[in-house]
């Protein structure tokens, strides 16, 4: 739908801001899914850690396996910190209300805007201009008119 060159569609700026909010909601949803995946992975790592045999520390293989086990423990610590950080951020993040679509108000105005634009184009036609000039030339302050005095 072509828009007039002299104006913008009502709600255009608001729609842009609203769309950015939709993008943010999508991102937050994706990050919540990521946090769920991370939590599941942490559960699996915890089960793996619980399966470690305490007698390994006393065996001769300890020097070979301890770096790997330390790596697992560091990974669990790092991932727990990541999940904790995400949870703290989500607690303060604003959430949109999917029940209300504020942009709908501006979409309802589109028909009125199009009608106003058409009326504006109609007034700018040569016949409308000549009718206005004719009215102006016949205007008299002594003859009452429903229109205001041109000035």
TrEMBL record:
Tree of life domain: Eukaryota
Entries under Gene3D superfamilies matching the protein: Arfaptin homology (AH) domain/BAR domain
Database matches in InterPro entries: AH/BAR_dom_sf
Protein name: FCH domain-containing protein
Organism: Serendipita vermifera MAFF 305830
């Amino acid at each position: 739908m072509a828009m007039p060159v002299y104006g913008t569609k009502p709600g255009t700026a608001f729609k842009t801001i609203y769309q950015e909010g939709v993008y943010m909601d999508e991102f937050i949803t994706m990050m919540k899914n990521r946090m769920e995946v991370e939590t599941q992975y942490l559960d699996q790592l915890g089960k793996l850690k619980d399966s470690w045999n305490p007698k390994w520390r006393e065996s001769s293989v300890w020097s070979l396996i301890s770096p790997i086990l330390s790596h697992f423990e560091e990974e669990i610590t790092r991932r727990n910190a990541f999940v904790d950080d995400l949870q703290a951020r989500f607690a303060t993040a604003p959430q949109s209300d999917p029940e209300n679509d504020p942009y709908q108000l501006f979409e309802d105005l589109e028909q009125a805007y199009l009608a106003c634009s058409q009326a504006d184009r109609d007034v700018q036609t040569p016949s409308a201009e000549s009718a206005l000039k004719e009215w102006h030339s016949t205007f008299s302050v002594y003859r009452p008119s429903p229109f205001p005095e041109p000035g």
